Request: fold
Amino acid sequence: MSTNSVPKQIIAMGGGGFSMEPENPLLDRYILGLCKKERPKICFIPTASGDSDKYIVKFYSAFVQLLCQPSHLSLFNPFTSDFRSFVLEQDIIYVGGGNTKNLIALWKEWGIDHVLREAWESGVILSGLSAGSICWFEEGLTDSIPGKMSVLQCLGFLKGSNCPHYDGEPRRKPAYHQLLSEGLISSGYAVDDGVALHFVGEQLKKVVSSRLQPKAYCLERVDKTVKETILEPIYLGNS
Reply:
């Protein structure tokens, strides 16, 4: 487990990583590189996908090729009842995409939300994409309910709201702008696929990307209108 001397870190991806860009490991390598161990322990939590077997296989297929020790934590087919000890032994937690509403409900039922907060405060790096990005914020724009975009109350490790897939799903941008202008969701961050927000503590430290064009945005409500500020990412392909 990481030590208290290591800062709290969260990497929230709008989309990308092994499941969306299997031929482009730049974001996944960036996450692994944040741990200063030669072979960090990284645990995949696929709750939002219903612990999809195919998703879990994709994770292992990608990460066995990288310098790390991959594992996964299933709530539908758990191998241990001591989730706390298992999670706190990890260096990195990587949360997959899927239904964020189900993810939050199941985590709270199993107490995973408290375990993850303890891990974060202990220096375990938290990361994820889509649902695995939304979950860390106070609120998220989610399509968990079929046919609509809605506001979901999340874990609140990070202040404000989050919208992933900002460029990848046409309904995202207008829905986020409308909800924000009406005061139904708090100010926050919108993130294109292939872009990640890197928080240290509760402050945004860096924005990185696996491709040249995508961006992130800071959105805030100003006099019932929405102010959108571009956050230019650092392209990881140059590093």
